[in-house]
Amino acid sequence: MFGCGNPRADLMLVGEAPGFHEDRQGEPFVGRSGQLLDRMLKGIGLRRDEVYITNSVKCRPPNNRDPKPDEIKACRSYLDEQVRLVDPKVVLTLGNFASKTLLDTTTGITRLRGRTYPWQGRTLVPTFHPAAALRAMERPDSPQMAGLEEDFQTVARLMAELDRPAPPPAPAAQVTVPDPDPDPDYEPEQMGLF
User: Fold this and answer.
1) Please, what are the domains in the chain?
2) Model-level pTM greater than 0.85?
């Protein structure tokens, strides 16, 4: 599964791998996670067709297990090329695997999220996977949903900064060169070199 959405989007969302529903429909984030993702996008004034959505791993791992390192590595060049072609200004990684893959770290999503990272001339925002937030909603003290909402607000702020017009250039400084000799009859003398 390659991806979907606006191929010229300023915002790219990267998940981990297709699940059962995504594999059947050929589109990322179409099940309950996709519904939550659509609500989160709507909450910041965006629609699915205004962003580009893809996954780190392009094929569904058997039995919906976590992607293995060799599967992530095998798909990395495809993901890098997608990023290059779409050329987003902001990349939102959804979940542990996408965040760790793009940031090339072993640090988990709980410690990565809540801040932004410069990445390949763009801004990367790691957040929880919508499926993790949905599972966590069953536990009242779980921070995943609040974290997801917080990170989407960070994305909204970054996107708003992109839409701001550049400040006007500062006026050129006026330099006044004083006249060295105000005498109108003055003629400079040619100096000889030898």
Assistant:
1) 4-163 (3.40.470.10)
2) no
